[in-house]
# Entry
Amino acid sequence: MTDTTTTPAEQELVARWQKYIHASPYNRELGVLPHAAQPDWFVLKIDYQDFLVGDPKTGVIHGGVITALLDAACGFSIFMKLPELKPMATLDLRMDYLKPATPGRTIFGGAVCYKLTSELAFVRGAAYHDSPDDPFAMAVGIYMFTSGRPVITEKVGGMQ
Amino acid sequence: MTDTTTTPAEQELVARWQKYIHASPYNRELGVLPHAAQPDWFVLKIDYQDFLVGDPKTGVIHGGVITALLDAACGFSIFMKLPELKPMATLDLRMDYLKPATPGRTIFGGAVCYKLTSELAFVRGAAYHDSPDDPFAMAVGIYMFTSGRPVITEKVGGMQ
Amino acid sequence: MTDTTTTPAEQELVARWQKYIHASPYNRELGVLPHAAQPDWFVLKIDYQDFLVGDPKTGVIHGGVITALLDAACGFSIFMKLPELKPMATLDLRMDYLKPATPGRTIFGGAVCYKLTSELAFVRGAAYHDSPDDPFAMAVGIYMFTSGRPVITEKVGGMQ
Amino acid sequence: MTDTTTTPAEQELVARWQKYIHASPYNRELGVLPHAAQPDWFVLKIDYQDFLVGDPKTGVIHGGVITALLDAACGFSIFMKLPELKPMATLDLRMDYLKPATPGRTIFGGAVCYKLTSELAFVRGAAYHDSPDDPFAMAVGIYMFTSGRPVITEKVGGMQ
# Structure
């Protein structure tokens, strides 16, 4: 599974996604940005910033930032598989921390919804610098479609 | 398991812990504060702030904030069981999201290290508003002691 | 949390549960037996048997047996909280292996459903020899109520 | 990721692995057999047997059997990446149950060790009937190398 460069079509998708990502104040605060959007691999990114650091002696980004990035990527990877947005909530999320993120480097968080039912979405994702084949963290989770109000309510024509 | 009020002894512990918690820029950014410190239940808190919100329509705090809070509480719950600080890293963390946090309310994250070996620490925690018996999120994780440099290097006399 | 001795009332409950447990051929094969049934702690047990061993050099029971025991205990702990049986399925299950089970000893698997909604049950359990306060394995999981046929269809009067 | 047919070379590997798999009495009891062995995808299988059933009304195999199969596949996937066998233990294992296994059909459990350090092995696996691209269960776990005695002590020349 290799990461994709942004084609013009994807740049358009990316431009479209940014307002949805920033509908969440917390994603705005962290500086989460869209990077690429394929049906089977949706990627967000966070540029390195000092206030995101967990350990000031090493400069390594806090694990909670990685989790937030992957949780968001997982959510959007589900949207990529839906004909229209549905409200949903994270049921559970497992994070495996393989090694520290590299201080100073941009963090990419990619995810794919690998199983979708009328009620549930099973997702997995990876956090990396260069390639999802060399991740520093992995995520696995289950999301459930709810009857609440979705975060994003504007109708999005042609999610994919 | 009920939450404890802060006795003078615990207030002293709390005052001591604040500089260790804020050794992490990200914890400072989120506004993580110590709340109570018992050997079997270490509690951090985050007051509600608009920039922590995940869903602007509901005002519910972003799940990534809850994860960061519980990850920190888990780490400190391990310190409560050690005679002296040892460098460690999170191997994995599972978060169960039972219900949304209540908008506007302070979030408490408590944790306990329930199994400790020379190499590993098994932890669990809960995020709640009123009592850990009514949590809105749960955490379970495994941390490993490493040979790296710890986040906190000043010698802490009498961890407990 | 201490384990309970079986009172006459619980012996009756245990006698009632055995046929439900053995409705599953696999539970029969493993030799799963009911041990105690409280609303907040339902306990099954498996006596040590050579064919359950994972490592013949140590005689330690295979981890898959522990998982099957805890999965069953979790399921029944949910039934303890329901007015009547509902079909359900395991969504996910996390097992933490703290130390090996002791060869030769009976294994107890206790569980509690700590959060119940109309759609989901959040459960946790522990596998132990002497006390759930000294577990050798822990389980955390989420079950979902489905529209399929339940394993147990006879009407059970007074589940608790 | 598609499943592989057994070439003569792999048939030889499979013949070699059977005695290691059956070193575990429990794997023998379940009828676990080797199916294919690639460095990045090690596959075990269990043929359908009535005593493995969890729900007698549907004939669906018990989830604990799936877990045992995937736990074993994960362990062997780690051996595929080691120059020589090292003792190890499962730290934790997460199982996602996507849908029921199909009654009557052989179950395949494949796994890959996707990250290896001197102390840890991070693994993931899938249980399926036809292809790992259409799994009915997924596994993610962390194993730790220990100082105990390995299950398999005969020296295995050329693990791969």
User: Anything to note?
Assistant: Chain B has three helices and eight strands.
